[in-house]
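Appendix B. Raw example, untouched.
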Amino acid sequence: MLLRIALACALWSAVFAQSIGAQMGDASLITRGDSLRVQLPGALWLDAQFRSWNADIMLLGIQGVAGDWPVSILDLDGLQIYGERSARDGFRHWALIGAVGGMFVGAATGLVLHTTGVSRDADGPTSQIISTSLRWAGLVAVAGGVVGGVYGSSHPGIGWIGVQLPGH
């Protein structure tokens, strides 16, 4: 029973994290002067400033490089723009932070409650310690996700938002 609860919490977290990663903006909304992160195949993320479009080629300004750098949007593995999140993106972002933080806080709370004897026998078997910690981790992760999501939808803030690329 407890293993099922732990697996359900882990699966929920993975699905939730995947949906968080699905925050996508539109490349047509990129305007001159926007801060971007671009990723070419097999390369790390590179910070740049958007200059202009020329068909499917973006001209980017990179600190320390003279002149503009032309990059085809079709050649990119990833593109992110730094801007204001929508209420939905803010919900997703803060709900993930709340859920992950809640898992750790809940697991620590369950461990402390068990070892102090509040929830069960402090000298009980290891399975009781694990079950108590996992139960609290799941409960507080859900609560943290909800609280974080509510906060994030009313205070979305700014941050890196992924842009859907053609062919990806």
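End of appendix B.
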